[in-house]
Recover the amino acids of this structure.
């Protein structure tokens, strides 16, 4: 891998060297390294591009890294990755995609991830998106995520996109059986003329299922964001979604909260707030010696932390 | 003089018409002084603090700091010259931790020991608070103490506190007074301007300024002013003020 690719790898996966545990590194459409372990098996798909990740039941405290790096202008790819997580597992999955596009053609990575999570298994999933390069070519990421959760499983998803991605359409769907618990934390910042759409469809199908989808975002310059979250309760369950956004400059934000209850035991809550940085927050930091711009940076950094 | 307000006026036009909030306020504070501003609600005390910090600009008059006319300077420039301001209602921030705020205040990286020292001086157990977010989960009194800790971390020549005792329980009151005494001792030539209604804070003042109805009704050494305040309706009441407006 060249230095650009290595730098992007650091941005999206905090990787400085080859990670511990199982990994698959994809660079410019090709595999740049793979390791399976005794409990985690990674194999290429036969009739599509992508991989299957199979984690044996009962695997605990192991991790899988599957970063993707695009540093060639004009590259477009759709990749299908399927995760089969056995019962009683407790694992960390780190995905992430970085695009460096200095050329004039658009680069696009559409990653379709499906998670099949066994009973009582616990998964922490971290996904970072990052773009760089000053060419006219756009950096486009359209992730699709499907999560199928069996009884009493738990999934925590952390999805971060802070810089440099011109266009994103994110579609996340989840189906939860009884006792399953899903937590989503999304952090998003758009700038320039970027556009980001994030759609969530969460179905709580079994008794005691719960979902908490929280998005914090900042729209700067002339960027556009749409947050569309629908939680459906089909059983006695708890659902909560929250969208908290800071709008700046000439940014635009559309928040579309939706709740659907098909069972009297479904308790669903949505919170949404959009507003500019509070004047008193700026004032407070300025009385401590920061300029207005420095104060803004501090407030945004904290908000997206 | 360290701080001097000369013929400060502040008026606004709101729905009720033209309101004179401050009319011709002048006073000066020397180096190494502990001055308390007191007076009835709505008298104009917080407005004076905001004018000193640069949060609002006067409609007339000028403000001098160490001999320099700072009237045209913005909040940041005044802060950098050495003015600190603790708000009557502290601000909350999502995601910003107590330690971040202390670092911003100090203008440099702080060791864990240094940040802990600032927190323990305001009576907070550092271990419990240092990584807490300065958000809605903090109580009013906790927030107020953190606000005071940031002023300690700044350690500037002039510190303005707007009702620092508000929300602080009786038990902690004595330690608040100790904070002021320590500040005086540690910043050479530094002055503290506190807005307060508390007799016990008035008692430790060098000078007391009474602000009511948008003007200064008394200013002098504590020994002269305090006896006149205690037990007497020292200033205009809210009704008097309303009558004045109409
Ligand atoms: N921007 C404004 N527009 C209209 N009225 C204002 C404005 N700012 C302050 N005032 C009024 O000016 C008066 C003085 O306010 P200020 O906050 O300075 O009082 P204070 O002495 O600090 O009172 P307290 O003891 O209650 O804190 C009040 O009547 C207030 O309502
Ligand atoms: Mg006040």
């Amino acid at each position: 891998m060249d230095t650009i690719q290595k730098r992007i790898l650091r941005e999206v996966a905090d990787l400085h060297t080859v990670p511990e545990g199982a990994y698959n590194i994809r660079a410019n459409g090709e595999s740049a390294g793979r390791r399976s372990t005794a409990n985690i098996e990674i194999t290429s798909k036969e009739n599509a591009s992508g991989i299957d990740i199979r984690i044996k039941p009962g695997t605990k405290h192991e991790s899988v890294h599957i970063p993707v790096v695009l540093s060639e202008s004009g590259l477009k790819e759709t990749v299908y990755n399927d995760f089969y997580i056995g019962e009683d597992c407790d694992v960390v999955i780190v995905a992430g995609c970085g695009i460096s596009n200095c050329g004039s053609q658009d680069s696009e990575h559409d990653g379709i991830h499906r998670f099949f999570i066994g009973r009582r298994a616990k998964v922490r999933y971290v996904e970072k998106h990052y773009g760089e390069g000053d060419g006219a070519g756009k950096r486009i990421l359209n992730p699709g995520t499907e999560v199928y959760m069996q009884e009493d499983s738990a999934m925590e998803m952390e999805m971060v996109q802070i810089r440099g991605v011109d266009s994103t359409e994110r579609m996340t769907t989840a189906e939860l059986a009884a006792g399953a618990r899903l937590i989503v934390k999304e952090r998003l910042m758009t700038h320039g003329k970027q556009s980001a759409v994030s759609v969530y469809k969460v179905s709580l199908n079994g008794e005691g299922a719960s979902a908490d989808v929280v998005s914090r975002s900042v729209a700067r310059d002339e960027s556009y964001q749409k947050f569309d979250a629908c939680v459906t309760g089909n059983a006695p369950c708890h659902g909560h979604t929250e969208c908290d956004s800071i709008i700046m400059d000439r940014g635009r934000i559309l928040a579309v909260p939706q709740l659907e209850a098909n069972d009297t035991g479904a308790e669903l809550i949505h919170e949404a707030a959009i507003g500019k940085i509070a004047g008193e927050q700026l004032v407070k930091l300025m009385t401590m010696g920061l300029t207005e711009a420095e104060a803004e940076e501090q407030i945004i950094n904290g908000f997206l932390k | 003089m360290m701080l001097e307000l000369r013929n400060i006026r502040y008026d606004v036009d709101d729905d009720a018409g033209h309101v004179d909030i401050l009319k011709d306020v002048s006073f000066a504070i020397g180096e190494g002084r502990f001055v308390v501003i007191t007076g009835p609600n709505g008298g104009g005390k917080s407005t004076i603090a905001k004018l000193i910090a640069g949060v609002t600009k006067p409609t007339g008059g000028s403000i001098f700091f160490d001999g320099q006319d700072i009237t045209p300077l913005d909040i940041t420039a005044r802060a950098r010259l050495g003015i600190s301001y603790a708000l009557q209602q502290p601000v909350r921030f999502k995601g910003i931790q107590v330690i971040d705020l202390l670092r911003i205040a100090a203008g440099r990286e702080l060791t864990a020991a240094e940040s802990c020292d600032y927190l323990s001086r305001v009576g907070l157990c550092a271990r419990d608070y240092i990584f807490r977010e300065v958000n809605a989960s903090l109580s009013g009194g906790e927030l107020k103490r953190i606000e005071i800790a940031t002023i300690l971390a700044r350690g500037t020549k002039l510190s303005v506190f707007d009702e620092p005792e508000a929300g602080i329980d009786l038990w902690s009151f004595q330690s608040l007074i100790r904070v002021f005494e320590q500040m005086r001792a540690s910043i050479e030539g530094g002055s503290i301007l506190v807005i307060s209604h508390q007799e016990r804070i008035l008692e430790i003042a060098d000078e007391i300024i009474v602000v009511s109805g948008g003007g200064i009704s008394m200013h002098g050494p504590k020994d002269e002013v305090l006896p006149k305040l205690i037990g007497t309706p020292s200033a205009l009441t809210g009704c008097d003020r309303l009558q004045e407006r109409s």
Remarks:
- Residues 193-305 of chain A form one domain.
- Chain A touches chain B at residues 216, 244, 278, 280-281, 283-292, 298-299, 301-305 (CB under 8 Å).
